[in-house]
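I am still getting used to backbone structure tokens and would like to learn alongside you. To get us started, please write out a protein record for me. Start from the sequence, derive the backbone structure tokens from it, and show both lines together. Once you have written the record down, we can walk along the chain together:
***
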Amino acid sequence: MKKNEVVIMAYREAELLAMVERDAEHPDLLFTKDYIEKDGITSDTGKAYEEVVRSWLLSHTDKIQKTDHNWSMYRTVVKKASEDGSRQTMAVLSQGNFARGSALDMEIVLKDSRAEVWGRFPLASMDRTGRMLTLYDMRPEAEEEKPLCRMLRLWSWKESLNRLTVAKALGREAPFMLKAAVLITGASNERYGAGKSRVSTELSRLGVLLGVSSFYLFHGTHLFPVNRGLPLYGQYTRGELLSLIERDSAHPETLYQKEYVNRMGVTWDTEEPYCKVLGEWLLAHREMWMTLPRGMYRRVEGVRAEKILKNDLWARVRKQKVLPPFGSVLPDDLVFLGSRFQQTGRPVMMLADEAGDSRFLVRLLEIPETSDTLLGAVLRSFTHLVMVDGDRLLKELKLSKESSIESRILLEEENPQTDRFLRDLPCLSELMKAMGVGLAMVERGYEALW
């Protein structure tokens, strides 16, 4: 016998089953029973206690459901995990993404009727859909706890918490599913060690039924298989994208800055390009830009602006004074302003081309940011276009009030960003046409122009 090993009485199988059925009248305490905490073999049939108990639980899940009469009262306390979190907890929180979702700065402590700590989940994560909350218990690899005991303990803790308290802490009204998991720490490479024992199929089935699972907390270089139908970190569903843009549409002037607008990829449920999903919605809701204030810009001397920017392209264009086929370079650039009248983004060059009958076509030229997607660049250009007080600007430029203003985004040849923009163009061409925003490729050398 090992030192400090506790020996429990050898029960006959019928005795063991009778005790399980009796103790299941208070299922939250099952994991504290000696025949679950410790190893044992039935004296008559020679079966492991865990095997007997596990089989009974799988066959009688209806008898271990939480009710108002079979469960003790526990108090749920929610606080920030970052307040006194471990080094590992803080590391997970700092990286943001975790377990195919987002790490939450939330710790849950359960207290019994004597105000003693009954259970504790030091970490939590929410899945991408916002419908699955997972609570984590962290245990060292060296801790000797029987798998079934651990599973029932986590299940008891999970079912003991007050979901309304947790929902309030999350600021949620919509219902969510709840799972619990143990994170085994200190030996993540043991998961692939030779001779490592695996969880039995029956125990895995029970874990699914109870909403409890077990993971190793790994730190280091790892892989995530990319397969059709499996979401990557940060990959959105169609519904998620539409929900985000509907929420942010209250401030359309900021849409071009949003992370999801400048993401490249496809929805993992319908496999549509992000730009297609968002572009279709924006095409149907262009009227929201009409609420933007006009005149949030100022004219600046173009030569001065280009010197500050140190932009070779703008400097070359200004030096040659024209940019065929869009006409003459106007002396001023436009600088657009934010809500606090601070400059946002690069200055915009203006060109003017006579369109006949004293009318001119004024084009605002923009160079996209390196982080832009085509959709992001289009939304920035359209936002600027809407913010221009057309009547005032045309009057200041001494151009006919019947003149019109459009926007163009400049692309450079043999540029990876240009390739991405052209790839997305078919998905956004209708939106761009409706918004008066177009693309123009910068070319150098001789050309026959009209």
Remarks:
- Residues 1-7 have pLDDT under 50 and may be disordered.
- The radius of gyration is 32 Å.
- Residues 327 and 353 are 4 Å apart (CA to CA).
- The longest strand covers residues 132-140.
